[in-house]
Structures are given as structure tokens and as C-alpha cells.
């Protein structure tokens, strides 16, 4: 790798880590603000003409903000996972695992965003739905199945190359065990096949 390529890789990794860290810190800050917000006087009272409390509305809004941050961070975290596993001299199996690891991280974060939205918005939406509150869970169940299917798919295609890497590490590469030795004792030597013996020369 040249110096320019090394500098670009280092800068890319630094920017990716910085962006992902910023999102994580912002999400934690929002959670802290939400907790303090729910402690304010009167937050447990109902919003006029609704069965929803002010705290539930605040929780729903902040949960949507956290979910948006997670979706924003998903490709950056996936890229960070890929670059952390990437090696310049890596084999095809390692590259496949690195690529699939990025996909697993991406869809896992997206699934987490869906679950955060469901948990945070439940108290603000289900009271309004009344007897149809089950539709809220059903909608989020369908929404969560999309990233879950992609997540399972990525995990499935990672099993074979990951098992190959494990076998290479533990038992050694097949090219190492099947390689021919330096000398073959069973092969006839040149003197045995081509050179006539002294008895043949005397005949």
C-alpha cells in the first residue's frame, strides 16, 4: 500500500469513527434529556381532550429522534465494521466475511431503530387507538420483519466462509496439507530407467 492509500484509509477510518461516535453521544444525550423531561412537574397529566400524557408525547418525539440518528448511523457503522475486518492480503473468504459483517451491522442497527420507535411511541399512540391497539403492534411487527429477514440472510451466507476460515486457522489450509514433498521416493530415478547397467554393456 502506498503512502497516499494509507493516508486515505486512515482519514476514512477516522471520519467514520468520528461520525459514529457523534451519533452515539447524541443518542445518549437525548435519552438523558428525555429522563429529565419526564421528571418535570405536570408531565404526568393528560394532554387536553386526549388520553395521552405529556410525558408520553415527549417520549414518542425523542424516540423518533433517536431512531432517526440510528438510521443515519447505520451505513457508517457498517462501513466501520467492514474496514475493521478488511486486510490488504486477505483471502476471498475473509473479504466475504468482512462484507457480510457490514451488512449484519447495518440491518441490526435498522432493526434497533424500529424497536426503539415502537417502544417509545407506544404510550402516545395505543391509548388513542383504543380497541384497535393491536394494529400498532402488528404494524411494527411487519416493519421489523424487513430488517430481520435481511439480517438472517446476511448471517446465513456468512456461515460457509466463516467456517472455512475457522478450519484454515485450526487445521491448516488444504494447500499446505496436500502440497507434494520435495522428493518422491516411489518415482524411478533417472539412473534406473535410462542408464544401462554394467551387465547390459558387456552383452
Quick rundown:
The chain has 203 residues and is mainly alpha-helical. It has seven helices and no strands. The N and C termini lie far apart (68 Å).
How would you portray this structure in words?
This protein has a domain at 62-170. It is built from 7 helices and no strands. It has helices spanning 3-38, 54-85, 92-129, 133-171, 174-177, 190-193, 198-202. Helix 1 (3-38) packs antiparallel against helix 2 (54-85) and helix 2 (54-85) runs antiparallel to helix 3 (92-129). The radius of gyration is 31 Å and the shape is elongated.
Q: How many beta-strand elements?
A: 0
Please count the helical segments.
Answer: 7
What's the average pLDDT? 77
Distance between the termini: 68 Å
Keywords: Membrane, Transmembrane, Transmembrane helix
Region (Disordered): 170-203
Biased composition (Polar residues): 174-186
Transmembrane segments: 20-40, 52-74, 104-126, 138-157
Task: Write the SSE topology.
Layout lengths: L2 H36 L15 H32 L6 H38 L3 H39 L2 H4 L12 H4 L4 H5 L1
Helix pairs in contact: 1-2, 2-3, 3-4
Main attributes?
203 residues; mainly alpha; elongated; disordered N terminus
